[in-house]
Amino acid sequence: MFLLCVCFFISGCITRIEKEQKQKDLEYILIDQEHLPEEMTEVIGQLKKKAFHFVYSDQGKTYLAEGYGACPTTGYTIEVKELYETEHTVCLHTSLMGPATGEETKEITTFPYIVVEISGTEKEVMFD
């Protein structure tokens, strides 16, 4: 009886979200910490200990921020794999890269994050 109820519950509540077609790659600028809007610096400081992502818009520019939380050493970087636009969304795909083999690192906790600037948009942003 329990198995039948579980099967009914699972099959009755599934909706599929179809991925939209990519329309075009977006041009972007990587923003370093010294050039971030002050409000973003404050928010990143509060969120950086755990993985995060958020969008910030100011003066016709949109900033996409993504952090990976605490890492045990120096040497971690974040790579933008894709940044593109669909009909309704902007999609950002990044990847955390560990220290290169043989790279000298220090045993201190770091909090890698990336901020990219794009032209202002009202579209929903999907982080992947």
How would you describe this structure to a colleague?
- The chain is an alpha+beta fold.
- The protein contains two helices and eight strands, in the order H-E-E-H-E-E-E-E-E-E.
Which SSEs are present, and which pair or pack?
Layout: H1 2-12, E1 24-25, E2 29-30, H2 38-47, E3 51-58, E4 61-68, E5 77-85, E6 89-97, E7 113-119, E8 124-127
Quick rundown:
With 128 residues, the protein is an alpha+beta fold.
Name its key features:
single chain, 128 residues, alpha+beta, four-stranded mixed β-sheet, four-stranded antiparallel β-sheet, 38% strand, globular, disordered N terminus
First and last CA, distance: 39 Å
Helix count? 2
Shape: globular
Mean pLDDT: 87
Helices and strands, in order, run as HEEHEEEEEE
In percent, how helical is the residue content? 10-25%
**Number of separate strands:** 8
Strand content: 35-45%
- Give the strand line-up of the largest sheet: 1-5-6-8
